[in-house]
Design goal:
Distance between the termini: 67 Å
CATH superfamily of the largest domain: Immunoglobulins
CATH topology of the largest domain: Immunoglobulin-like
CATH class of the largest domain: Mainly Beta
Order of helices and strands: HEHEHEEEEEEEEEEEEEEEEE
Radius of gyration: 20 Å
Structural class: mainly beta
Number of helices: 3
């Protein structure tokens, strides 16, 4: 018993030493629309117009910043296989059981993309004064379609990674969003300026999966450093070095808009 305890303590000590000795770097990409910025498309409010008609709703499948052409809602996450699991930075370990909200707010989903890991929790909310349903079209995790009354909340566990599922509201057919479930914490979604930053990635060579719901799938055909490039199946191999790893401006035109 004493020997087993000693071995356990030694193993924990070695793991802690290896983790503290690991080096980390940040990965940054900036996605810019390749072409003239498309105008936002207004939504035809066909249900609950007295309430939903107040919000000047537009289609959010493609959101491009007219000031700098930044593309929002592009997802990047580390693509791994069973034998290539990375070490986890302590900042992420502390968030392993965090909760992330998908809110029905102003007759739209907020945010448009939720990115979470298999150990975290999805919280469905309804901040509106009308009822909504949240239809999750999962293919790895079980699909569900729950009515969320005004002021209501509901928690869901999605325990299988590698899923990019569309979410819709059957009551208000223009509403849509995406939930992306991945196996490691190394992922991010591009902001309103097209900037995507994944912090504290372990040093080494890793593959990242790039995806955009409004494109109907993989971010594959891009221009990087002014040169046309294809990321096969939306996968990009990057060698992470300590500090900032800025891949610069990536020009992209989603297929849905071509």
């Amino acid at each position: 018993m004493r020997k087993a305890l000693t071995l356990l303590v030694l193993a924990v000590s070695l793991f802690s030493s290896a983790l503290s000795a690991a080096e980390w770097g940040d990965l940054k990409l900036t996605f810019v629309y390749d072409g003239a910025v498309p105008a936002p498309q207004p939504i035809s409010v066909t249900k609950d117009p007295q309430f939903c008609g107040k919000f000047d709703l537009v289609d959010e499948e493609l959101v491009v910043n007219k000031e700098n052409k930044g593309i929002a809602n592009i997802v990047a996450y580390m693509y791994t296989r069973g034998d290539s699991a990375p070490p986890i930075h302590p900042d992420y370990a502390a968030q392993a059981e965090a909760k992330f909200s998908l809110d029905n707010n102003s007759c739209r989903f907020e945010p448009h993309v939720v990115l979470l890991t298999t150990t975290q929790t999805l919280v469905l909310k309804n901040s509106d004064g009308v009822g909504h349903n949240t239809n999750y079209a999962g293919f790895r995790n079980p699909a569900f379609n729950d009515v969320i009354p005004p002021g209501g909340t509901l928690e869901k566990k999605l325990t299988v990674g590698g899923e990019r599922a569309k979410v819709s509201c059957g009551i208000h057919p223009w509403m849509s969003a995406y939930v992306v479930v991945h196996d490691t914490p190394y992922g991010a979604v591009s902001d309103q300026n097209g900037e995507l930053l994944i912090k504290n990635v372990p040093v080494g060579t890793w593959t990242f999966q790039l995806w955009h719901g409004g494109s109907g799938g993989y971010v594959a055909d891009v221009k990087q450093n002014g040169k046309a490039t294809t990321w096969a199946k939306g996968r990009l191999e990057v060698t992470i070095k300590p500090g900032m790893n800025d891949l610069g401006e990536i020009k992209y035109k989603p297929k849905a808009t071509r």
